[in-house]
Amino acid sequence: MSNINIEIDNFINYLKFERGLSYNTCQSYSVDLNEFVSFLAEKEIENTENIGESDIEAFIISLSKKGFAQSTIHRRVAAVRGFCKYLLREKIIEKNIVKNIKNPLTQNHLPKACTIIDVEALLNAPTNEGFELRDKSMLELLYGCGLRVSELINVKVHDLDMTNKIIRVFGKGSKERYVPCGEVAIFWIDKYITDLRGSLNTLRSEYLFLTKFGKPMTRMMFWKLIKKYCRRAGLDENISPHTLRHSFATHLLAGGADLRSIQEMLGHASIGTTEVYTSVSSDELKAIFKSTHPRA
Question: Which CATH class is domain 116-292?
Fold first, then answer.
C-alpha cells in the first residue's frame, strides 16, 4: 500500500528533476494535489490503491460547489490526471482511473489587453528618481518585450546585449529565447544601471533588478508595485503583469506583426496559443470600424 502524500512528493520530484519543470509550475501542481488530498482525507482515503474513478468525479463536483473558477477546476483536474497517470506508469496502481474523466467545460476567455493610452499612463506613473527608476525600467522591459513576470525578475545583467538591443530570457521549462528590446526600455534600463543599481548591489548579485537589500525582486513584490502604479495612474487595479504581456502581443498584431514572429517573442510552444490574439485584434478592428465608418 502506498501513502498518497509520499507518492505526491515523488511525483513533484519527478516533475522537477526528470521533466525539468519550473519551481512555480511544481508549486502549482503541489497546491492543486494538496486540495485533492484534503478531499480524500474527508473520505478517509490515505492510500493510492483506494482511489477510484468515482472519487475523482466527486472531487470535481466538490470544487464546483465551493465556487472555484472553471479555469481553477480545469487546472486541478489536469493535476490529478497527471498524478494518476504517473502512478499507473510506475505500476503503483493497476488501473487507469482517469481514462473516463473529462475536463469540465470552460469558457474561451480572451486575454485582457490594455489600450495603448492606458499602457502609456501606467509606464509613466513611476517617477525617474530613487527606487521608482528601477520600477519604471521593469515596467518598460515587461511591456517592451512581452515577458512573463517570472522571466522579468530572473533577468541577469549579462542577459542584456545593450549594443544590439537583445535580451536573453528563460521561459517555461528553462527554454531559452532571444527577444528584441526597444530603444525606450534600453534607455531606462541603462539609466537604472548607471544611477541606482550599483548602490543596491551590496551582495554582488548577478540579477538585474534588486531590492533595497540587494536581493532579487520577487513575483509578489512586483505584483504589489503594479497595483501601486495602477492606483496612481487611475487605472483598473486588476491589471497584472500578464495583462501587459497580452497587451504587448495584441498591440504588435494590430500594428501588422505576423503571428509566427509574435509566437517566437512570447516563447509559446504552439502557434495555437498565440492565435487567440487574432480574436482580440478582430474585436478592436470591429470597434474602430463601427466608430469611424459612415455605413457602420
Answer: mainly alpha
Domain locations along the chain:
4-89, 116-292
Which of 148, 197, 246, 251 is flagged as catalytic?
148
Active-site residue, 109 included = no
Catalytic site includes residue 204: no
Q: Looking at 112, 172, 177, 219, which residue is catalytic?
A: 172
Q: What is the DSSP string of 75-136?
A: HHHHHHHHHHHHHHHTTSSSS-TTTT--PPP---PPPP---HHHHHHHHTSS-SSTHHHHHH
CATH class of 4-89: mainly alpha
The per-residue pLDDT for range 98-148, each reduced to its tens digit, is 988 876 655 555 557 889 999 999 999 999 889 999 999 999 999 999 999
Instruction: Judge whether 242 counts as a catalytic residue.
Output: yes
Catalytic site includes residue 158: no
For the cut 80, the answer to whether the pLDDT of residue 294 exceeds it is no
Q: Does residue 148 carry a catalytic annotation?
A: yes
